[in-house]
Structure formats: C-alpha cells, structure tokens
Amino acid sequence: MALKGWTNLRQAARHAVGWLVVLPWRYARAVFRGLVVAVRWWRAWVKVGDYRDAAVASEKLADKFTEIRELTLFRWKVTGAVLVAVACGLLITYLVYGDQVWWYGGLVVSVALAVLGRRKDGSPGRKPVLAGPRSLTWTMDPQVLVDAFRDAKLIGKDETLRLVERASRQGDGWAVTVDLPATRKAADVVKNRDALASALAVDEVQLITERVRGNGGHAGRVALWVADADPYASAPQRTPLLGVSRWDAWRPVPFGRDARNRRIDLPLVWTSLLVGAIPRQGKTFAARLAAAGLILDPHTRLYVADFKAGKDWDAAGLVAHRFMSGDEPAHVLALIDWLVELVGEVQGRYRRMRDLDDTVCPESKITPAMARDVSLDMPITPIVIDEVQVPLEERTPVAVQGKRLPAGEYVGELLTWLAKKGPAAGIVLVLATQRPDSKTIPSGLRAVLGSRFALRVMDWRDSNIVLGEQMNTRGYDSSRLLPSHKGVGILRPDGETDAGADVLAMTVRTYYMPNEDWRVICRQGRALREQEGTLTGHAAGQDTPPVIERADLAMAAIGAPRLLHDDETEDEGAELPEPLGSVIGYLDDHDDGRTFVTSADLIDALGADATWFGRQMSELGCRSTRERVDTDDGVRQARGYHVADLRAAADRVAEDDGGGVDGL
After folding, report:
1. How many other C-beta atoms can be found within 10 angstroms of the C-beta atom of residue 527?
2. For residue 659, what is the DSSP state?
3. Which end of the chain is more exposed for a tag (fewer CB within 10 A), N or C?
4. d(CA 630, CA 644)
5. Beta carbons within 8 Å of 429's beta carbon, 6+ residues apart
C-alpha cells in the first residue's frame, strides 16, 4: 500500500515501532505453538492415526488390529533410533566445536518451530479443531477481512478488497477503510451490516459501516469501525448544557454521542424535528434535549404543548411564551389558535422582510442579527408538541371558512404549512409521538419535516414512517434496536454533524437529562430572559389570547376556526369567506374605476399562495380569464378576474342561505 501523506507515514512508523516492541513476545509464542503442533503431529504419526481411522471407516479395525499394533511398535523404535542418533550427533559436535553448538542448535530448532507455529488456529491456511475468534484477527491479517466479505456474500469468491487505510485504533475500537471491487457498491455493505458482523464474529451493534463520500470517497469505498465491546452498555452521559451559562440557538444543540463516542450536535434553525418511538424509550428526553439549547438563548420565543398531561414539561412554563398541558378537546382548540397565530406571524415576517434592505436581509430568510433585533420582532420561535398524535387524532368538528373539518385534520394542515414556510422565518417545529403510524402522522407533514430521530419502534414500517421511505432497505431500521438500549435511536439530521455532512443517518445515544437537570436549565433560561428583558407571555404571567388577524389569515390561506356543536348551523350572515372577502376589501380600498384585475396583483396584495388562491376562488364561483392589460412594458395578456364578476359572486355568496362554500 502506497503511503499517502504524513498521516499514513506516521501511522506506518507507529506500527513499525510497535511491531519491534512485541517481536520477542510474538516470537516466543510462535515457538511454543510450533512445539505444540510438532508434538501433536508426532503423536498422531506414532499412533498410526491415519491408518487406524481408515480401518474404522471401512469397519475392518479387528482385522487390521495386529498390523496397526506392529506398525505402532515399529514407529516407536524409529523414534527411539532418531533420538539416539541426534543425541550422538550433538555429543560429537560438542566435543569438536564446544558450547557454541548448543546456541546454534537451539537457534535452528527455535526458528523451525516458529515457522511451524507462525499461524494461529482460525487464520487462513489452517483447519482448526475449534474455530478461533475472528473479531480481531482481521486487524493483523487483512485476508481475514477479505474472507469475511466473501462469507457475507458482499464480494465474489474470486474478488478481493483494496486496503485504503490499514487497521488502526480509533477510540474504543478498530477502524479500516477499503475499496470494493469494481461494480460493487458501499450501499450494499451498509444494508447488509448484519451479515458482515456475523462473518467478523461481533454483535451488529459493535459494527459501524459507512460509505466514504466527498473528494476522498466514491460509491465503492467503505469505512468500517468495530468496537471492542457494546458501545451502549455503559451509563449515559449528562448533557453538556449543564456546564454552560447560555447558548446560541443558531449553534447546533448537543444531542448525544455515536458509537465512536463522537459528540453529535443537532442543528435546529431553518429546519424541524420529528421524534418517534414506542413508550418508555426516551422520546420525551430527546425532545427536551432539542428544546434545552433553545431555552438557554434568551432571544427565542418558546411555545410548548404537552398532550401527555404529565409533569415532564412543567418546568418549561418558566420560560415559555405560551404553555399548556392537557389532552382534552379544549386543549386541541387552544393549539389551533396558537398555530393560526403563528401562520399569521410567519406571513407578517415575510412582508416585513420585503421592506428591509439587502444588507439587513440579503435573502428571504431570517438571520442571527434579525432574530436578535428587538425592533424587528422576529425571534427564533420554536413550537414543541409532545404526543402530537393526540391533536392529530381529535375528531371534534370545527368551522373553517364555511367548511366543517375534524380538528385533527385542521391541525395537520396548519403544521404542514408551518413546516413548509416557517423555518426560513424562524419557526422551529419539534414534534414527538409514540404512535408513528401512517394514519396518525399525515404523509404531507412527514414529507416536510427535515430532521428525524427514531428510537425503538415495533416494526420496519413504523421506522420508515419516522425516518423516511425505504430507509430499512438502506440499512436503517430502528425496530432492530435493543430494548435495553434506552435513549438509543437512529438520527437522520437535516444539516452537518460531527459525523460528516454527507452522512445519511447514524445511530446515536442521547444525553441523559433527568427532571432535576431539566429544571436547572429552565431556571437558567428564565434568569437570562429577565436580564435581557425578553420574558413574555405565559412565563411573564401574561396569558393573552392569540392574536389572529383577518388579513394574515387570508394571506396564510387558512381561516380562523370555531367549535361547532351538533345542533349548530354555519350561519355567518353577510361575512364573506376567504379569500373572496379580502379580494372585495382590496377592490374597495383601490377603487380606481378599473374593470379587470389581474391574479398576480391580487396574489401579491394578499400575499396568498397562488395554487391555493386559484382553487379557492374557483370553488367560490369566480373563474379567471385572460385579458389584455396595459403595463410599463406595453400591452400584454394576463390572467385575472372581471371586477363585475367578483362583486356579483360576493353578492351571490352573501345572499346564499348556506353563507359559505357549502352553499355554492
């Protein structure tokens, strides 16, 4: 193997020095093994073992007993004669050359025995009586690693591996990097990790297989790391956030450690997090770890909804702008109000970003300076929902823009919208559930959640729902995690971690943060907010209802809900459903005598989504058409609406007894 740079040179030097240090001991062991092998061979020869076994196999032992006996006695005599001849030869040589005969004779015999015993049982070239351990032999003999890949059917019998980096110690294990034969893919090695672990005689939890990506990797390069013991058997470590006075929400939050004991930090800003697991696997602990770093930043505005209705999140009430704990329908409706408020907040932030110059807001994304500028009022706003399946499964009907919807369906739509458009405006979703099935978590919501963390679940389907489709076929299945490994899960991050920016997923053991540590962090977060003057809402004793503005709702494409009783009808009088109501308001405010208004003007003025706007207007009976309009660049064709048609539709809706969409 060619040396690559100073790193490999230093590694080769260390191996050479180590080899010289252990050489005497290895030589002595080889001599001893050679002596054992020689004695075993002589014993089998003198007892006529091969002849005797052949006679037993042919069931003629009784007939051949006399011959075997005579041959045994003859070989004993040969042995005695050889010993006498050797002894006489040594004695004569001693009389001629003196004491140096013993030294030279001993050296020759020891070298011969060392050569004879140079290979251990279990290594290539020897058929052991009992199979020897294979877990470490590959570090000394790469051929063992090649045989393991062949046994796991990852390469063919006539194929071999190319050693990129020789085996070396990394942490509490051994690491090696190899190139697979042409057309063989590293993804197959990751997928069949269990088979390779079996071939190497280690538990699969001790074996880490990763494809090497980037400039130093390719589709056939694999990095292996084998732990000396179960890396998750020891006690978990306490969160390092206990040792800091404050944290920056823009820095990734300390989340846990991987099998190599590397610290794994989880980025949260500009993304979202889904945590899924069966009960009592550490789901709430994982969600609290993500929230802890955000709590220690006094410039964040925290929303916490605990639908477990326990005390796990009670300490968050010291810092949360909005906080509730319960699992009744009233709590779900309160959550809807929160989410609608946040939808309006996101749209308001985007409108304010358009008015900022490029030095303050270079893109339509929030920046650290913008988040900390009190005058802009755009702090990082995490919303943490534990047991999110409770609101998503709520069937209480609510009225939304003239339609009856189950509350759970509406919550799903709101969360999906926030997950799509909220991250760039500073909204961070942290959702935790103990029921990660396809009926509970809508597919549209799952598709837009950036980071995923799956602790142990019941089967591969639930694992795929949390981590993403086909992740089990790529070697990541959280249903195979051990029940004893509490807090251990598969993390699929949306961003760079210490394991590498190109790592698809990794097994991580989360830090340990019991309730007493959680309370310490929340009290520290409250003290920081009091110092900075950013303590608001629930934490400041100001439980004001959410601010829900009509214009913001129209822009967000989502209306304000209200609870419907079984005997109640949807009578909204002359109030127009959205977005028609906002369109008529816009026309009233801009009554310049025009007879045609373009869709682009309306969408831009209302800040609505183009697809949603067109669909809703069509449902309200307003069909768009193409007309020629005057612009600064001349006359061009544009799609829009005749003002007379819009006002006629408004009159028709206002006179409709249904009072909304259902009456059209």
Report:
1. 16
2. -
3. N
4. 19
5. 272, 273, 382, 383, 385, 415, 418, 419, 422, 449
Q: Using CA atoms, how far apart are residues 324 and 495, in angstroms rounded to an integer?
A: 31
Segments of 56-211 assigned E as strands: 162-169, 173-179, 207-211
With the C-alpha atoms ordered 260, 266, 272, 275, is the resulting torsion angle positive or negative? positive
Structure tokens at 434: 């103990």
Q: Tokens 């740079």, residue?
A: 5
Q: What is the pLDDT of residues 501-555, one digit of tens each?
A: 567 788 999 999 999 999 999 999 999 999 999 999 999 988 776 755 433 443 3
Going by C-alpha positions, the residue among 488, 430, 469, 73 that lies closest to residue 478 is 488
Q: Output the pTM of the full model.
A: 0.64
Query: Can you tell me the mean pLDDT for 241-245?
Result: 91
612 touches 557 (CB < 8 A): yes
pLDDT at residue 280 above 70?
yes
Element containing residue 208 per DSSP (H, E): strand 207-211
The angle that helices 610-619 and 599-606 make with each other, rounded to 10 degrees, is: 110
Pairwise CA distance, residues 551 & 607, whole Å:
9
Taking the C-alpha atoms of residue 577 and residue 460, their distance in angstroms, rounded to an integer, is 44
User: Which residues, other chains included, contact 375 with Cβ-Cβ below 8 Å and sequence gap of 6+?
Assistant: none
Q: Is 214 left (phi over 0), alpha (psi -120 to 50) or beta?
A: left
Alpha carbons within 13 angstroms on the beta-carbon side of residue 469 total 5
pLDDT tens for 402-460 read 678 889 989 999 999 999 999 999 999 999 998 777 677 888 888 888 899 999 988 88
Residue with tokens 């069931």: 59
Cβ atoms of residues 250 and 368 within 8 Å: yes
Q: Which of 554, 560, 574 is nearest to 653 (CA)?
A: 574
* C-alpha–C-alpha distance, residues 109 and 86, integer Å: 13
Q: Copy the structure tokens of residue 342.
A: 């946040």
CB 304 within 8 A of CB 326: no
Secondary structure E strands in 78-188: 162-169, 173-179
Number of residues assigned to the chain: 664
Bridge pairing between strands 253-258 and 506-510: antiparallel
User: Which amino acid belongs to residue 315?
Assistant: A
Alpha carbon 493 to chain centroid, angstroms: 5
Per DSSP, 300 falls in state B
Give the orientation angle of helix 49-57 with respect to helix 61-97, to 10 degrees: 170
Distance, CA of 36 to CA of 40 (rounded, Å): 6
Tokens read off for 476:
């990541």
Q: What would the pLDDT profile of 199-233 be if each residue is shown by its tens digit? A: 888 888 888 888 888 777 888 999 988 888 888 88
Read off the tokens for 87. Answer: 């002894």
DSSP label at 259?
Answer: T
Q: CA 226, 230, 235, 236 torsion: positive or negative?
A: positive
Helix residue spans in 435-579 (DSSP H): 443-447, 460-467, 515-532, 550-556
Write phi, then psi, for 433 (nearest 5 degrees): -145, 145
| Alpha-carbon radius of gyration of the chain | 37
Burial profile 194-228: b = 16 or more Cβ within 10 angstroms, e = fewer? ebbbbbbbbeebbbbbbbbbeeebeebbbbbbbbe
Which pair of structure tokens corresponds to residue 23?
A: 């050489």
